[in-house]
UniProtKB/TrEMBL annotation:
Chief location bin: membrane
Domain of life, source organism: Bacteria
Membrane topology category: Multi-pass membrane protein
InterPro entries: Aquaporin-like, MIP, MIP/Aquaporin, MIP_CS
Species assigned in the record: Streptococcus pseudoporcinus LQ 940-04
GO CC list: plasma membrane
Keywords of this entry: Membrane, Transmembrane, Transmembrane helix, Transport
Membrane-spanning parts: 6-26, 38-58, 78-101, 133-153, 159-183, 210-232
One MF annotation (Gene Ontology) recorded for this entry: glycerol channel activity
Similarity comment: Belongs to the MIP/aquaporin (TC 1.A.8) family.
NCBIfam families, per the entry: MIP
Protein name: MIP family channel protein
Length: 233
């Protein structure tokens, strides 16, 4: 059930998270151009809901960087982490397909390739490899340090997920404006693969030259958070 929980939770994460992005950036939606604050809040709610549902069946990692960090922390085995990561990737891909089905008429009238890609994967406001990488490292470091710290208080599932969702909103508002804060390799890579596959008019390229940053950055950031947490204990 743990693996299914990660799969189901990540579907919900992407459906709600990329769903709010699609609503904001695609043309002729009810919430078109409602702005970054709406996106950040939408992602926070998406994480809280997905983690709460997944937390009934699994640890609610929903993020390969988090699973890797917990394996480094020896909370789970590396074999378990690998199974979670596979489930997270598949869930992210399916969630992205569901977003496309939800907003299909709006994709058909969308003409900006950057907007279309933005409903699947992240991208930098200004391309600067080092700064973009640091943005993903910093954001995921804060996320993982928060998750580990919340765990010290033995919170009920509902309160813990609310705290993580609120943290996601804070990271988005404070640190997310530079890269769109993937802070989750599956959240970016899975939908980016679907973007490359789906026959969407005017979709343009999938920007694979950037794709390594939202994979490596979160893994490094989460791993550094575990190292610091172990020193602090």
């Amino acid at each position: 059930m743990d693996v299914f929980g990660e799969f189901l939770g990540t579907i919900l994460l992407i459906l709600l998270g990329n769903g709010v992005v699609a609503g904001v950036v695609l043309p002729k939606t009810k919430n078109n151009n409602s702005g970054w604050i709406v996106i950040a809040m939408g992602w926070g709610i998406a994480v809280a809901v997905a983690a709460f549902v997944s937390g009934k069946l699994a640890p609610a990692h929903l993020n390969p960087a988090v699973s890797i960090a917990f394996a480094l922390n020896k909370t789970i085995t590396w074999g378990t982490a690998l199974m979670y990561i596979v489930a997270q990737m598949l869930g992210a891909m399916l969630g992205s397909i569901l977003v496309f089905l939800q907003y299909r008429p709006h994709y058909q009238v969308a003409e900006n390739p950057a907007d279309i890609l933005g409903t699947f994967a992240t991208g930098p406001a200004i391309k600067d490899t080092l700064s973009n990488l640091l943005s993903e490292i910093f954001g995921t470091f804060v996320l993982m340090l928060g998750i580990l710290s919340f765990g010290l208080y033995h919170m009920p599932v509902g309160l813990g997920t609310l705290c993580v969702g609120t943290l996601i909103i804070g990271i988005g508002l404070s640190l997310g404006g530079t890269t769109g804060y993937a802070i989750n390799p599956a959240r970016d890579l899975g939908p980016r693969i679907i973007h490359a596959i789906l026959p969407i008019k005017h979709k343009g390229e999938s920007d694979w030259s950037y794709s390594w940053i939202p994979i490596i950055g979160p893994i490094v950031g989460a791993s550094l958070a575990v190292l610091l947490f172990q020193i602090m204990k």
